TrEMBL record:
<dbReference type="InterPro" id="IPR005630">
    <property type="entry name" value="Terpene_synthase_metal-bd"/>
</dbReference>
<dbReference type="Pfam" id="PF03936">
    <property type="entry name" value="Terpene_synth_C"/>
</dbReference>
<dbReference type="InterPro" id="IPR008949">
    <property type="entry name" value="Isoprenoid_synthase_dom_sf"/>
</dbReference>
<keyword id="KW-0460">Magnesium</keyword>
<dbReference type="GO" id="GO:0016102">
    <property type="term" value="P:diterpenoid biosynthetic process"/>
</dbReference>
<dbReference type="GO" id="GO:0010333">
    <property type="term" value="F:terpene synthase activity"/>
</dbReference>
<keyword id="KW-0479">Metal-binding</keyword>
<dbReference type="InterPro" id="IPR036965">
    <property type="entry name" value="Terpene_synth_N_sf"/>
</dbReference>
<dbReference type="InterPro" id="IPR050148">
    <property type="entry name" value="Terpene_synthase-like"/>
</dbReference>
<dbReference type="GO" id="GO:0000287">
    <property type="term" value="F:magnesium ion binding"/>
</dbReference>
<dbReference type="InterPro" id="IPR008930">
    <property type="entry name" value="Terpenoid_cyclase/PrenylTrfase"/>
</dbReference>
<feature type="domain" description="Terpene synthase metal-binding">
    <location>
        <begin position="361"/>
        <end position="582"/>
    </location>
</feature>
<feature type="domain" description="Terpene synthase N-terminal">
    <location>
        <begin position="77"/>
        <end position="277"/>
    </location>
</feature>
<dbReference type="InterPro" id="IPR001906">
    <property type="entry name" value="Terpene_synth_N"/>
</dbReference>
<protein>
    <submittedName>
        <fullName>Uncharacterized protein</fullName>
    </submittedName>
</protein>
<dbReference type="Pfam" id="PF01397">
    <property type="entry name" value="Terpene_synth"/>
</dbReference>
Amino acid sequence: MDQMEDDPERTCGFELAFTALIDDAKQLDLDLPYHLEFIEQMRATKAKKLQKLPLDVVHKIKTTVLYSLEGVQDIVDWEQIQNLQSENGSFLESVASTACAYLRTGNKRCLEFLTAVLAKNNDTALTIYPVDIFEPCWMVDRLQRLGLARYFESEIDACMQFVYKQFSQENGRVGWVAAKGAYTDMDDTAMAFRLLRLHGFDVNSSKILSSGDEENCRLQAEQCFFRACETGFPEEADLIEGLAWTRKLLLDRFKKNDLRDKYVISKTLASEVVTALANPWSQTMPRMEHRAYIDNYGTDDVWIGKVLYRLPKINNTTFLKLAKADFNMCQKKHQEELKGLLRWNRELVFKSERCADDKTLIICFFAGAGCLPAPQLSLARRAFTQLCLLTVLLDDFFDSTEESLAAKAQFFAACRSRDPKLMDGAGSNAQLLFESMYGILSDVIVDGSFLQGRDISQAVYDAWFRLVECHLKQAEWKDPNIQLSLEEYLEVAGVSISMEAVASVVQYFLGENITEEMSQSPHTKRLTKLMNTITRHTNDMATFQKEKLENTQNLVSISTRDGATHSQVLESFRKLVDDQMRRLVKEVLCPSETDGVLPKAARQFYFDFVRATLYSYSADLLLTSEVSERDGIALPAFELHDLARKMQFVNRILFEPVLY
């Protein structure tokens, strides 16, 4: 008996309903062993629970007791309890509770509800009906995480409009059903909030966590709230604090091996939770999410109510088969594209040491496929890969001690004038790099201009000239006598991290019209600055020890001049990156203005490009085979700049098909 009370997978209200069924059976003179010790223990358990039941509250507000009225039918006031009847005639959408209420009161609305349930479900009675908030929210979430959302865009939009209407009407709280005054809960509210926010709806976070939620948390509710908190804006202190709170709860559950939920039996829920803890949303590429969730998606999850039941619109083999087929189809297309890029790379006239073989290009393509996996974005992936490789070539050239500062200045002058004749007399590497750079940019300009229906050459050249200019300034800073302020360093190093040069061009390849006004708008400039700040700080935190040995100025080295320790500086930078990431999330999902705002796909790409970059710097990656410890969890490990290890998880995304 004690073991049953501690079992999170027992049916809901079992200790209440079971004894009531026994009593009903006895009244019907059914021949059953009514005096078994187990039954007496159940009666004692029920009595103990009823002692804690605040009947004054039960009759005034909607609580989960309404879900099990048949178990407390002898103690409730049926006149008062009818005031809590739902709009659809049910009591908390429970068919059994509503049937009990009808038998006790003769309430016609109860009968109408029961009749409607039978009519809509082929003369069968579900344990709970309807679930028109819970079911579509969980279904949309599954489709998105499996990488299938692009096939159901209109249907998903209709679902989100429906959910938003209920979310707004109920002041930011929802339950499993769309009805005025419906019972609300933490997991449905958190799931709805997260989905609505990701789809650009204006939603308020203040009501996600309601009174009593913290005391009644369970695994799935904690996980839903954790994922909702990951989408928090900088001013939403409740979500910032909630993220730390739920992370601790989930970690504690992991350490206690307590990864089961009260309302669902799932073979993969524990793995899903660990994956979420190991791979924060802000540091995971979309394609990585899809691949991980294909492994974690449960087709045969069993949901727990008064009975065990399945929800085929949420868990089914069709979704999984489609996700696997789609993943493999996209992977095959990515492989074909990569073959063409590898041929192009081998014909490239200039190669730095890091680009001497194919691995760097493969990793660049991996990031492109990770951010932009859809088949129709082939040209975007090609442009992304070529431009990312070009950033590596430029970085290596300007970092090289074998190239003189004069040669680098000559390269800059030629770029400014776009005149190859100005490269006469420069070293062969500089000349070949200039030729490669303008060959790549010319190809990208042709394709981008065609897609946009206008000439984008000036915007492309301006962005890349600015990048070269900043690289030259950093080369000049090699002089040990130059002491930079943080502001001076960031103004240049924020650009030389190369994110801006790549993103400002790839945005033209995403199937949306990008006007000159959009590309120069205050909103786009904020996006760009946030992107540059986040990635530059992350890079410098990861590389400051290496750059210290090379006598290269870095955000960390500059910040420690006044006596601050490395640990203090790193902690302050981590907080800054977290804050800037929340600001970026807000600019991407809910821009504060309408004029000059980039279209949705372009904004999303800025965000996903940052996620891909943070992912590459992460010390804990999902798909490698080695193990490290973080927060007491055994997690896959990865060393920055270790190409051999990088290739282990690249293989799973680009080269290893999902098995059926």
